[in-house]
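Hey,
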Amino acid sequence: MDFLTGIIIAVFLFSCTPSYTRFLADYRFPNKDSVPDYGLPEYWAALPFKKNPSDSIPKPLQAQTVKDTGVDVFFIHPTTSGSFNGSWNADINDSVINAKTDYTTILYQASAFNECRVFAPRYRQANIRAYFSPNSDSAKESFDIAYSDVRRAFQYYLDNYNQGRPIIIASHSQGTTHAERLIKELFDGKPLSSRLVVAYLVGMPIVKGSFRKLAPCQDSTQTGCFVGWRTFRWDYEPPLYESGESYVCNPLTWTTDTVYAPHSLNLGAVLTKFNRIVPEAADAEIHHDFLWIHKPHYPGSLFYFSRNYHIGDINLFYVNIRQNLRTRIRSFSQSKKSEDGR
C-alpha cells in the first residue's frame, strides 16, 4: 500500500498549491451536463489553439526551445483532487479541480512535452479510493467512467485535430492507468501503431505481458515503443503493488539495464519553482521493478523525508524528457523517410 500512499501524497501536494485559486473565475463552463463535450475547448486542459499552462516554458529553457507542430502529444493527467464529495468520480465542471489540474500537472508535467502540440483532456477522474478497492463494482465503474471520457477525447482528437500527424502518448499515475488501456485498444498491433512515436507511461507499473505487440524501448532512439518508471528512495523496498514484474526504463540513460546513472547525467529538474532548473537533481538506477534514486539535490530537500517520489516521477527528469522527445522524433522522422524511399 505504500505505493498508493505515494499517490495520495502527490494528490495532497497538488491540492495544496495555492497559486491556482486566483484563476477560479476562469472555470465557469457553459455545459452543465455531467459528461464532457470535447467539441468545447473548456473541456480540454491543454489545446494548441488556446492559451493554457502547458504552453509555459521555464525561463532557462526558452532560448533553446524549438516548436515542432508536426507532432502531437496526447497527455493524460493524474488524479488532482482527493475530495469528490462522496462521489466515485470527479464532477467535470468542478472549477476547483479544473484549476488545480491546469496549474499543477498541466503546468509542471505536460509542459515538459510542449515542443510539440499538446492535447490534454479533462475527464471525470476516478476517486483515489478506487485504487484501494480495485475489485469492487464501484471502483471498476469509476475507472470505466474515467476511461470512457479519455477514449472519447482521443477519438475526437483523431477525427478533428490529428490529420495524420505522428502521436506521442504521455501520462502519469491515474493517467497511465487509462493510457495503458487506450494503447491496448487502439495501438497495440493495430494500424495506428505506425503513427506512435513513443509512449511515456509514467508513475504506474506496466506489468510484463501487458501488450501483445508493443515493446519497451531499449535505448534513447527507438520508436514505436514505450517507457515507464516509478521513483523511490535508494535502499527502500516498497511493498508489491501488483503481482508480476513490471517494465522499467531509466530516464537518465533510456535503457532497461541496471547500470547506475550518476547525477551528472541529469540535465535538470523542475520542482517547486517553475522557472528554476535544478541541474543534477537526481541520479537513478533500476532496482527490480522500480527506479531508485538517492535523496534529490534541491533547495529545501533537507526537509523532505518521503521515500516515495511519485510526485516527482516526471519533474525530477524534466529536461532529460524534453531532450529525449527531440531524439525520438528525429529518429521517427528518419525511419519514415527511409521507408518512403524504398
